[in-house]
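sorry for the late reply, my laptop died twice this morning and i had to redo everyting from scratch. anyway the thing you sent over, i finally got around to it. pasting the sequence first so we're on the same page, its 440 residues, then the predicted structure underneath. double check i copied it right bc i was rushing
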Amino acid sequence: MRGALRDEHPRCVAVLAGIVDRCRATTSEGGPDDEEEEGSGGLQCLKARMALSCVLLGDETNDTDGPLARYQHSAILDEREVPALLELLSNCLHGRAKEGKGGYSAASFSLKGVLRVLRCLVSLPENGTVLASTVNGGAGLNALLLKGLARYALLDEYDAVLDAEAAEHMAVSLCQMSLHGMDEAVLGFPCPLGSEIFLPASFGNRGEFETRDVLTRVLRSYVDKSGTTGRGERAANQLLLRLHCLRFEGSVADAAVGPGNSFPTKADMDLDKKLLAALKKVPLDEPPKRGALPKEYVFDRAVAGREKNGSAAKLFATPSTRVFSSALIAAEALAAEQPAGPVDIVATANNVGYYADGLDVYHGFVWRWADGQGDFIERIYSAAETEDQMPVPEGGAGRSEPRKGLLERLRIPIRGNDDEPFSILGLKCGVAACGRGSLF
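ok and here's the structure:
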């Protein structure tokens, strides 16, 4: 359906984008005076953006150079739409209608449909930033998604409303939102996508369940559940690898804003007694393995890749070259094409950036930064730690050998003895390395 609309009826994208842009213009000019009309108009605008995102975006590996890319700006959420979007998700998750202005019945939206829309929306990094940076928007959304995923993974009674496809949407959305909730103190640099609170520090009436343990138990139960999809499993495994660098702060009550049902309440976001009782039965034998820490350049720097099948000089001159808005999105695309198995997407993204000089083959592709700039020194000092951390398919087909050191790559001879001292860079103090014996 989505492919047919994109390929055979691209005009529908233009129409939806026009509706969204007109709503945005009306709202920015002050909007209607009548509150009832304003509520209905806001809902219509949100619905148009939701429909546009499903047709235009689709999944977590969107290209940035396609023929419809010029409409992507229309799929970016307005921060004023965030409360309505979270309220819609919460109402669908709990089978509620909305009363008053912009109201709707409990049957107006399907839970799976709303989850699909959210997955499409957060596949665009700009939307993840809007959601995460809106007051408690990111933590609130993630708490609702975690609750839904826990229901699917732990309680059979929800099988009628939450199937494997809906669970995949929740797992992938949580994984995407985790990129906006990383702890800068752990990363060692300001994250280009923001560093907002990913989830409250604990769940339960008294905060007795630490969130890291809750996530670990829910995600492992989800991975082990019969019928879990490959994409959902991969997203869950990425979250487990990232637990050590995510921000868990505050309480569930802090993530609930607004009186009554005008915004998700604490009860909406917290785990109920049934879920907590089911969680206690899940063994927690050992903490999750820690994945690679992302490099600063993998978040928001466009990278181009093309399969190695011809002259390197002509490699990036062809129209079939794929351009990704970041190395992380390129890594997602690589992971989607690999056989099922453990892959650290962050480590893969680090290596895509490391090999992005247009000279070497990595996973069957030659990579280059889309801006034409290089990071030669950065690549030299960042490669070793990610090479060892990234599981590689057996045989390493289509992948370059690990890079040689700087002097080896430049083919500079080093004449030094084994008993000579090392420089601070780990190089022997031969003629080329330290200059001993040179004319100067």
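Residues 380 and 405 are 7 Å apart (CA to CA).
thats about all i looked at so far, will dig more tmrw
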